[in-house]
Enoyl-CoA hydratase/isomerase family protein
Amino acid sequence: MTTAVRLTSDKDTGVAVVTLDRPERLNAVDLAMRDELQETWRELRFDDSVRAVVLTGAGERAFCTGLDRNAVVPQPHSPYMADDPLLRVGPKANDLWKPVVAAVRGMACGGAFYLLGEADFVVADTTAAFFDPHTTYGMVSAYESVLMAQRMPYGEVARMMLMGTAERMSAGRAFDIGLVSELTEAGGALAAATECATVIAGYPAEGVQGTVRALWAARESAVAQGFAQAAHLVALGNLPEERQAELFAGRRGGFRTR
């Protein structure tokens, strides 16, 4: 069976690498990949030989480009209920309190922020570029905005979410504002992230995991309050699917990078 998520573990270092493995789709998340990610995070909860995790994407073009547009997501026929397919895709949402370091190469956009928002810190190479296409296609950036508002200055996250596909944040700018903690040469993010994870995995797990939990505690009440509003904002603000498809089909190719 073809898998969309690769998990490799080094028992000597205590580091596991989780790789989004759909490079032909720019590592976009379909429902099968979503399910595999959930299973992977839950599996790692019970593997005491793994003490730190690196999350990355296969290929050179993208870390992750969010939800695959071909994914069919059934929705309840009620304005009071909505199923967000990526809401439980990250490590914290699956009760994993081992440190997760993200290694970003290429594009990271849209639903990728569900994953980056639950990583403990981000390492990127010079090819990394961050943007959110939602507004361009008549959709509300809600969950992504809530998560990124915990990682970036308000003005920076507002600009990213509102500018849509017209603008991309460069790896250098992401480093300057603190979204990225380390900037490497092209192709170097995975090695640098793994080096950090190896150091962390060498410390006693109890103290490390308690620190991860404390750090998330400082953010989770704000995230929970934002998420409580997100579904309603999406329902109110999203254009119908046919209008979204029309905008997507006519999308412009140009953008600026800052």
Summary: The chain has one domain: 5-201.
